[in-house]
Amino acid sequence: MADLLGSILSSMEKPPTVGDQESRRKAREQQARLKKMQEEEKRKKAEFRKKMEKEVNDFIQDSALQKKKYEPMGKIERSILHDVAEVAGLTSFSFGEDEESRYVMLFKKEFAPSDEELEAYRRGEEWDVAKAEERRKLKEQAALEEEATSRTQKRPPSPSSNYRDKYSHLIGTSAAKDAAHTLEANRAYGCVPVANKRDTRSIEEAMNEIRAKKRLKKGEEDVGAGSSGL
C-alpha cells in the first residue's frame, strides 16, 4: 500500500520552477500589451471614421465643390474613407504609383469623372478642362484625316484616258481596213451597201428621167419600124 501511494505521489506534476514562472509572467504581459494595442487601433479607426464622416458630410453640403482630394494615407485609412464615401453615395478612387504616395479623391455622383479625366490622374497630371477639350478636337481632326486618307487609298484608280482614245491609232486603222475590205467584197460579189442604194433624187426628178427614157425608147422603136418598111 505504501509503495502504491509513493508511486502515485511521484507521478504527480512537480511544482513549477522559478524559470517556468517567469515565462508565464512574460506571456501574460505580452497578451495584455497585444490586447491594449488592438483596443487602441480599434479606437483610432473609430475616430478616423468619425472624422471622415464629418468631412464627407461637409463636402456633400458644399454645393460649390464637385470633387475633393485627400493627402496620401495608409491602406487602412483609404479603406475606411472608401467605405464612408460609398455609404454617403459618392464615387471614390485611389491614385498614386506606390503605397506611400497613394491618395483618395471623392466625386459627387452628378460630377463623376470621365475616363479621360481618370487617365490624367493616373498619370499624375492635374485635370484641365480647356486642355482636355483641345486634345479632344485634335483627336477628332486626326480621326477625320485618317478616315479621308483611308477612303482615298481604297478608291480604285480611274484610267487617265479612255481605252478607245488611248488606242485610237490602232482601232481607227483597223476599222478603216475592215471597212475597205468589206467594200471590196461587196463590189466583187455585186453587193451594194444600203447606204449606196439610197436614192437622193426628188420624186419629180425621178419621174422626168423615166419619161425621158420612155420617149427615147419610143423614138428608137419608130426609127426601127421605118427602116424595116424601107
TrEMBL record:
<protein>
    <recommendedName>
        <fullName>Sperm-associated antigen 7 homolog</fullName>
    </recommendedName>
</protein>
<dbReference type="InterPro" id="IPR036867">
    <property type="entry name" value="R3H_dom_sf"/>
</dbReference>
<dbReference type="InterPro" id="IPR034068">
    <property type="entry name" value="R3H_sperm-antigen"/>
</dbReference>
<feature type="compositionally biased region" description="Basic and acidic residues">
    <location>
        <begin position="21"/>
        <end position="48"/>
    </location>
</feature>
<dbReference type="GO" id="GO:0003676">
    <property type="term" value="F:nucleic acid binding"/>
</dbReference>
<dbReference type="InterPro" id="IPR001374">
    <property type="entry name" value="R3H_dom"/>
</dbReference>
<feature type="domain" description="R3H">
    <location>
        <begin position="46"/>
        <end position="109"/>
    </location>
</feature>
<dbReference type="InterPro" id="IPR017330">
    <property type="entry name" value="SPAG7"/>
</dbReference>
<dbReference type="Pfam" id="PF01424">
    <property type="entry name" value="R3H"/>
</dbReference>
<feature type="region of interest" description="Disordered">
    <location>
        <begin position="138"/>
        <end position="169"/>
    </location>
</feature>
<feature type="region of interest" description="Disordered">
    <location>
        <begin position="1"/>
        <end position="48"/>
    </location>
</feature>
